[in-house]
Amino acid sequence: MSLISTEPKDAPRVGERKPERGVDTLAEARTWLKERGIEDIECITPDLAGVARGKLMPADKFFSSTVMSMPSSVFTTTITGEYPEEDDAFQHDPSDGDVFLKPDFSTLTAVPWASEPTAQIIHDAFHRDGRAFDLGPRQILRRIVGLYEREGLRAVVAPEIEFYLVKQNLDPDYPLEPPIGRSGRAEASRQSYSIQHVNEFDDLFDDIYEFSEKQGLEIDTLIHEEGAAQMEINLRHGDPLALADQVFTFKRTIREAALRHKMYATFMAKPMSREPGSAMHIHQSVVDIETGRNIFSDDEGNPTPAFFSFIAGLQKYLPAVMCILAPYVNSFRRLTRGTAAPINVHWGYDNRTVGIRVPNSGPGSRRVENRVPSSDANPYLAVAASLACGLLGMQQRLAPEEPISGSARGLPFGLPRGLLEALALFEDSGDLAEVFGPRFMATYRAIKQQEYETFMNVISSWERQHLLLAV
């Protein structure tokens, strides 16, 4: 069976700038690669952790074979490469059969850090009979986007991704440290929005911008965040799948650029105990497909019932999807009282102490910012989960609590305190099972439980420090 489209398209006009990212057909892909002298192609797809999996092959072989496959078990492995135990709800494929990968030509772009001319293309996973593979993160996000389309709606998102630059750490038993900047010194204080401290890593950010330009990726803004050598990149708003693809690609890009400068870029939610955690905030709005109007505002520019119901859906269901938005034990270390991270699902206008913030904006750009997800989350699943919560709120016509006008940091916790609590809420939500599908729910829960058990086999320095000689 062929999974590659060969439909023709009009040739580019004379003098038209060649796109750096994306084509429509196999024929255009062949021309695109030939014009750039591409020798190899990375055929990749995100797994449930957001890790790029796939195959590297010569360009000629890519065009000689229309079908590429990969074991389905790739989508049931933990972050440590183990496999979860079976139970009543989750079972492995007894034959470990293949899933078939179809290239999405809109994602074709260069790999600017590669030593040889190389391209990358993100693939979707399918069953042999052509059905979408229900454990593929891109397919899960497509499913949620499709639910909006059934309602005549189009979701729009804009992610913000925080990350740390750290010294290379060859021994994981040693704590991470900020890297040395161009001044010869490491940061030792909080420098939120400091231009000077961004300039400490000018050479690195020059590479990030260059790599991004060569991949057709658009950075909206770059800022220094609160933590030592903590940065944030904001992306322009757009289609949820396209933006999740960009986050997926940006993570690879930033890590590769950092390695060139003998440092690491990490998207761990809480890499250093005395520094703030890293988030992936998701701005969301919803547009009527027929009219193009933002449904969060009425003709007079006032917020609509749909706007309030979207917020209410986040309030009701965010705790139940926390295992997606905060997918590791480390993720919950970020969500502590007295930090910039939210600990509850209250909402407010231009209020950064709550989990759900409504930024200042005009009626046409009225949106809701979900501040709960951590930067270690799979961008496809995090966007899908956040949009699913809002959609359920609108479908059920939920009403939100009153907005918080002051600080919400002293209010009680409204989010799970740990991964096991989050998994229990996830598993018990029948509404989410209808949205995500029972197989994904069971598989994701089993993977996270196995990761938790693996973590529990590790003895921490805290235990050796405080328990070794005291108990």
From TrEMBL:
The lineage of its organism: Bacteria, Pseudomonadati, Pseudomonadota, Alphaproteobacteria, Hyphomicrobiales. GO terms for biological process: glutamine biosynthetic process; polyamine catabolic process. Keywords: ATP-binding, Ligase, Magnesium, Nitrogen fixation, Nucleotide-binding. Pfam families: Gln-synt_C (PF00120). SUPFAM superfamilies: Glutamine synthetase, N-terminal domain, Glutamine synthetase/guanido kinase. Residues 39-130 form the GS beta-grasp domain. This is Glutamine synthetase. Catalyzes the ATP-dependent biosynthesis of glutamine from glutamate and ammonia. It comes from Pleomorphomonas carboxyditropha. One of its GO terms (molecular function) is ATP binding. Residues 7-22 have a biased composition (Basic and acidic residues). InterPro entries: Gln_synt_N, Gln_synt_N_sf, Gln_synth/guanido_kin_cat_dom, Gln_synth_cat_dom, Gln_synth_gly_rich_site. Residues 1-22 are annotated as: Disordered. Residues 137-471 form the GS catalytic domain. Belongs to the glutamine synthetase family. PROSITE patterns: GLNA_ATP, GS_BETA_GRASP, GS_CATALYTIC. The keyword Heme does not apply. The keyword Protein transport does not apply. Its cofactor is Mg(2+).
